[in-house]
Amino acid sequence: MVLGLLLARGGVRVTVLEKHSDFLRDFRGDTVHASTLTLLDELGLGERFAAMPHRDVERMTVRLDAGEAAVADFRRLPGAHRHIAFAPQWDLLDLLATAAAEESTFTLINDAEVIDVLREHGTVVGVRYRDRATGAERDLRAALTVACDGRSSAVRAAAGLAPRRFGVPMDVLWFRLPRERTDPDGVFGRLSAGRFAITIDRGDYWQCASVIPKGTDAALRAAGIDGFRRDIAALLPWTADRLAPLTSLDDVKLLEVELNRLRRWYVDGLLLIGDAAHAMSPVGGVGINLAVADAVAAARIVGPALRSDGGVPLRLLRRVQLRRWLPTVLIQGVQRVIHRALLAPALAAAPGPRLGAARLPAPLRLLRRFPALQGLTARMVAIGPLPEHAPAWARRPAVRSRTGR
User: Which of 38, 114, 117, 353 has its CA 20 to 30 A from that of 403?
Assistant: First the structure.
């Protein structure tokens, strides 16, 4: 949607295909980092975003059996946005779609499920999609096709591309719990031997993630909701009196974590970005913002060729990958270290108050002793190693929301 908006503002005829009839999906990634908030400002959409339901978070902390430590302090960030925001992804997508619809060259087609790519002489020239409302199949031709369809990309599979997969030690179970007015603000991690959970302040509720060993979801569900509630209460005792709303494991959604990366993000006529090119771990909540950065870089690099109604040569598609390769590899490398050094041992340990019971791990002690370092971790999470900025031809002055706020 970001790429479609940027290109449409450059006068490029662009069509976005959305598989579903709307954007309403619960427990999609909802983290909007400072880099993306800055981009929205550049696009003149900052005030519209500010009027949306969202929650600003200024710090991240983790509690081990040995005590609590701050991991990132976003108040130390440079620029106007010294926080990250949690906003329902469907609201953000609606905002972007509304802004894009103001451009005469933009089209959004819902209920459009891509089933194949179209090829001529070895070049991808568009896609075939199924109208899920009618069952009809249609072809859509394009000078450039961009796969933005996630970690299970249908376009990637149709193009015969397979990513290199990196092993991950965990999956994630998402659920909600009530939040009281007296609860603290922020994002909190709780790590103990054999157990790890994250609670995210969403204003009137906590968005909770229970990290489980990879592939153990079926066994957990077989044990039933009572066993799940006991596990959560043991790790997060303050939630014990608010677990009643979890009446069944249907209220608990599984995210099968993947970490992978394509060696080559393009072929003639086709570019892959976001999770279609590099699925990210949920560690740090960086996936959406890395995908947005991919989209901005792609618009800036291929936009001029598309604006001139010319083709997009391979060298430009290669430039997109080269531009985004280093930040992707760096962030995935950090995630792999955290998987291997922290999460895998913790999840493999027998449950009980033993992990770091006597002393916080050295990195957390360092962050506690030198608070300025919390600004560095905040910058890595909220801005990243190579933030992208909107091209001049896509920028607009601030546009107020329709509510006038």
Answer: 38
Taking alpha carbons only, the member of 304, 286, 295, 307 closest to residue 383 is 286
Structure-derived torsion over alpha carbons of residues 170, 339, 154, 305, reported in degrees to the nearest 10: 160
DSSP string, 93-140: HHHHHHHHHTSTTEEEESSEEEEEEEEETTEEEEEEEEETTT--EEEE
- Judge if 226 and 303 occupy the same domain: no
Residues 292 and 319 in one domain: yes
Contact 229, 246 (CB under 8 A): yes
Question: Which among 26, 1, 27 is positioned nearest to 14, based on CA atoms?
Answer: 1
- Report, as an integer, the average pLDDT of 124-149: 97
State the Cα–Cα distance between residues 270 and 274, nearest whole angstrom. Answer: 14
136 occurs within a structural domain: yes
Q: Is 174 part of a structural domain of the chain?
A: yes
Domain enclosing residue 184, as ranges: 170-213+215-255
Residue 399 lies inside a defined structural domain of this protein: no
CATH assignment of the domain containing 123: 3.50.50.60
How many folded domains does the chain comprise?
2
Final residue of a structural domain among 205, 238, 255 = 255
Cα 365 to Cα 66, 277, 371: the distances in Å are 11, 36, 10
Are 158 and 240 in a shared domain? no
As a whole number of angstroms, the longest Cα–Cα distance in the chain is 65
Condensed to tens digits (0 to 9), the pLDDT of residues 83-93 reads 999 888 889 99
Q: Are residues 233 and 110 in the same domain?
A: no
The Cα 307–Cα 303 span in angstroms is 6
Q: Which of 20-24, 69-73, 342-346, 387-391 has the highest mean pLDDT?
A: 387-391
The number of residues making up the chain comes to: 405
- Cβ pair 12, 264 in contact under 8 A: no
Task: Tell me which residue has tokens 């991919």.
Answer: 294
Query: Which pLDDT belongs to residue 27?
Result: 55
- Summarised one tens digit per residue, pLDDT across range 169-225 is 999 999 999 998 888 877 888 888 778 898 888 888 898 999 999 999 999 999 999
**Model pLDDT for residues 88-123, shown as the tens digit of each residue:** 888 999 999 999 999 999 999 999 999 999 999 999
Q: Would you say residue 375 lies in a domain?
A: no
